[in-house]
Design goal:
The chain is an alpha/beta fold and 302 residues long. It contains twelve helices and eight strands. Strand 5, helix 8 and strand 6 form a beta-alpha-beta unit. The model has no long low-confidence stretch (mean pLDDT 95).
Amino acid sequence: MKTNKISIIGVPMDLGQMRRGVDMGPSAIRYAGVIERLERLRYIIVDLGDIEIGRAERSDVKNVENLRNLKAVAEANEQLAVKVDEAVQSESFPLVLGGDHSIAIGTLAGVAKHYENLGVIWYDAHGDLNTAETSPSGNIHGMPLAVSLGIGHPSLTNIMGYTPKIKPENIVIIGARALDEGERELIKEKGIKVYTMHEIDRLGMTQVMEEAITYLRNRGTDGVHLSLDLDGLDPHDAPGVGTPVIGGISYRESHLAMEMLAESGIITSAEFVEVNPILDERNKTATVAVALMGSLFGEKLL
């Protein structure tokens, strides 16, 4: 974190998957007090409002080449990439509020052009490394990491006019516990570093985060993007997500992870995605997201 200015960008998009409601995520996170929380930490907050999301055309809703809502998702991510690019240019920390995880395509497109060797921490139950060929559903929210590696449909991989955005050796996935067969193969083929729930249980979150931070530093990264899907947490702590998977990271472990990232100072952009108020309990998941943002931006108990 090299600036005290944060640009908040909301992306009320639910077109990357099939369960409605995640488009209300940015509103829920704002309602849970994100701006006030970060202002208390002495940050200058610029709320850039929400990206306008177009409607999916009826012809587009059907899987075009097994890519649901391809045109609308690509257009939204183009818009987002421009906003994120402008935020970085203004020396502001881009904080993107989702929306489904397909928005990471636009966030990374806007961020990566400013770094020679961008690192990524992907805090998620899923790998999001599917392609049209490997995806069981055609939902683009299961593809953003693959797209950012330059693997996928050209209208997604070429956003901002360049590809790839990131290198496989600069990625660390944390919290994985639901990987499709094609994703497992890609992880092995590309040598992507993954800490599944097995490693978190066995090593403990402290060691996992120490190793992840050291790994990215040793790779010579000049910035690190945090992409945090709330389904990385256990559904007990974050029930309002579209694709919950039991046996996830705990609330306290997640705070520890964010606190350690804050101490490391390596994070230069972030997004918090997949908050779905319709599936939530009294805005619990958005409140958790805001609390984790507090820890990421340096909030301490004492």
